[in-house]
Every structure is written in C-alpha cells, then in structure tokens.
Amino acid sequence: MFKQILSHNLQMFFFFTEAHIYKNQTELYSLPTYQHIIKPQDRNNSHGLACYIKRNMQCPEIPLPDVTSLETLGVELIIPNSTLTFIVIYKPPKVTMADLLRDLQIILKAIDNVQKTIILGDFNVDALAAESQPLKHLMQQFTFKFTHPGTTHNHGSCLDHVYLPKDIQNMYNCYTFLPTYFSDHFYVHLQLGISA
C-alpha cells in the first residue's frame, strides 16, 4: 500500500492512519527518498500511524499528551521561513463522541499556543452528518475550521477530516479525493501553498 502511493515521489509528506505496522516491521516500510515516523500497531487494539516526509526536510516528532481513546502522532515540518505542525488522529469506531471530545480537548489545550497547526485523520465521525456538530463546535472554539465538504469513504460519508486554523486557511489550494484499491477510505490530497 505505502510503496504504491509513495513511489510517485511527488509529495513532500504523507500521513497514514490504521497503518497496521508492527514494531518489528518498521524497516520493511522504509523508502529511499523518504524518512518516516511510525507509531506501530501493538497487540492492545491500536492500529498504528505513519508519517513519511521527504529526506531533505526537517521533521521532528513532537510530544502530545497521552489520551485513552485516540491514537495520535505529532510532527513538526520545518520549511523555509516557517514551521507547520501536523497532528494526526485515529479514533477507533467504538470510541464515543464524549470520549473523543474529552481527549481532543486535552490535545487542543496542549497545542493552543502552537502556530500553523493542521489537525487531520480518521475521526470515524461523518462530518457531513448532524452528529459531527459537537466535534466541529469544539474545533471552532480553538479556531480550527473543517475545510473539505467532500466524501472520503466508499459509503458516501466523510470520516477523514482536515482542520485548519485561521492563521493558515489561506495557504491551502485544493483537495483531491481519490478512491484506493487497498482501503474503503479515499486518499485525501491536500495541496498547500508551500515549497521546500
């Protein structure tokens, strides 16, 4: 899965949720032109997260608070004249909205002073449905805006969210949603107005 997407060698960075990579497999997923940060799947129902960034870019992992219901990965991407922070989130389907909101608020408070932060991932909450309003409201309280109204899943829902803060909402150019043969989730391509 990873190698097919990354073999195009055009993108600066990729994030994967439900990566299903175990600790002893991380080197199997290395690629010559990308460095990676992998939070491997463990035997305790986590699914694993992965981030691939072009080798010529600085991208330290940043610590995030431990939360009980979400898998999280924080990465700082250092680009000329700026730094972008990415928070990747996976919410398992059985996690309740109340638990999601509680843990997400802990994360949002911890990163409240971090500029240019993009929060994205598989939230397993349909952003097109009324059930997502408490989530969108919480994100708005911390100046994050849900930015793509398209479907990201074979069943016509939008489970994969991208939230941008006010300070970079004018940086994104477009979204592309592409079905994949290896998942029921679409590949979500966010194009930002940055260069490396």
Automatic annotation (TrEMBL):
Residues 34-185 form the Endonuclease/exonuclease/phosphatase domain. InterPro entries: Endo/exonu/phosph_ase_sf, Endo/exonuclease/phosphatase. One of its GO terms (molecular function) is catalytic activity. It comes from the Eukaryota. SUPFAM superfamilies: DNase I-like (SSF56219). Gene3D superfamilies: Endonuclease/exonuclease/phosphatase. Coiled coil: none annotated. This is Endonuclease/exonuclease/phosphatase domain-containing protein. It comes from Dreissena polymorpha.
